[in-house]
Amino acid sequence: MQRIPQILEKAKKAYKAGNKRLALVYSKKVRHLSNRHKLRLPIAVKRQFCRHCSHVLIPGVNCRIRTREGKLVVYCLECRKFSKMSLR
Ligand SMILES: [Zn+2]
Questions:
Q1: What is the pLDDT of residue 88?
Q2: Gap from CA of 63 to ligand 1 centroid (Å)
Q3: What is the sign, positive or negative, of the torsion defined by CA atoms of 48, 50, 55, 58?
Q4: What span, in angstroms and rounded, lies between the C-alpha atoms of 77 and 63?
Q5: CA dist., res. 74 & res. 63, Å (int)
Q6: What integer pLDDT is reported at residue 47 of this predicted model?
Q7: pTM of the model
Q8: Pairwise CA distance, residues 5 & 1, whole Å
Q9: Distance, CA 82 to ligand 1 centroid (Å)?
Q10: What pLDDT, on a 0 to 100 scale, did the predictor assign at position 45?
């Protein structure tokens, strides 16, 4: 569980360094860990991944965030899909 934020940081760093594939490997690892240990990821962590392609989402870099009807609408530029998230 403590490892998840660390992996998340690595994923972001890898992405910012231009290594999208490595970032994807890290974000899949987070997903794998949470499944294997039956952990519920904190919402703050969950929001940082695309639901469809599990890419790490960095606002202004590979995703656009809007609010609509009290919900967060995240548009992933990797897979061009929308994810709706509750603000609460
Ligand atoms: Zn995506």
A1: 61
A2: 8
A3: negative
A4: 5
A5: 7
A6: 86
A7: 0.82
A8: 8
A9: 8
A10: 87
Residue 38 CA to ligand 1 centre (angstroms): 23
What are the C-alpha distances in Å from 3 to residues 6, 33, 34?
A: 5, 9, 11
Averaged over successive runs of 10 residues, the pLDDT of the chain (88 residues) comes to: 88 94 94 89 87 90 90 92 83
Report the run of H or E that residue 12 belongs to, with start and end: helix 3-16
Distance 49 CA to ligand 1 centre (A): 8
Residues near ion ligand 1 (CB < 5 Å) are: 50, 52-53, 76, 78-79
Other beta carbons less than 10 A from residue 38's beta carbon? 6
* Beta carbons of 81 and 52 less than 8 angstroms apart: yes
Residue 38 — φ and ψ, nearest 5°? 50, 50
- What is the sign of the dihedral through the CA atoms of 12, 15, 19 and 25? positive
